[in-house]
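## Example record

The block below lists the input lines for one assembly entry, exactly as stored, with component labels intact.
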Amino acid sequence: EAGVAQSPRYKIIEKRQSVAFWCNPISGHATLYWYQQILGQGPKLLIQFQNNGVVDDSQLPKDRFSAERLKGVDSTLKIQPAKLEDSAVYLCASTERESGNTIYFGEGSWLTVV
Amino acid sequence: SQQGEEDPQALSIQEGENATMNCSYKTSINNLQWYRQNSGRGLVHLILIRSNEREKHSGRLRVTLDTSKKSSSLLITASRAADTASYFCEAGTSYGKLTFGQGTILTVHP
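Predicted structure tokens for the full assembly:
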């Protein structure tokens, strides 16, 4: 079974530039999550999708971050414009349904903003 | 949302010793899960324990859950250098919403 795929693996951009990350969850997984993990901290939930609908985006900085999952499969997370404090690993995860199932994580996309 | 809080923040042991880390949470849960994260990698699911279970084993892992104290512990027996990683717990409710604490950084010295 293929795992959660993320790209790019690494990205370095200058502040005020934009960046987009892509995630392809495990086939058939209805729930998709994006997390931000700053070095030395635990992952922080940015947004949760159930199919193509948003379940929770309360911690997404909507002035600069956006995410979509148009066909209920893969998803993109965009940051525009980036700030220095956005330097982090962006983790995508998926599960069959919201609760009680194993959550599968991708390897993450490392962002450095300089 | 539910947030697991792990302690200790860091744990350093010798290979072959046992490692115990703890997790506390605030309100009622349906289940609690433990994850491992190797440096520079994504999180890997280790074990899930449901709220009506008190103990669960998987290989060298033993997880306990005390719902009256709102706490869980993860025991890794006969640790190996490859167990060096950060460990996170996540306490789940019926409506999902995964949140994690700061994690316990485990270092196993060969």
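The first strand of chain A starts at residue 5 and ends at 7. Chain A has no helices and eleven strands.
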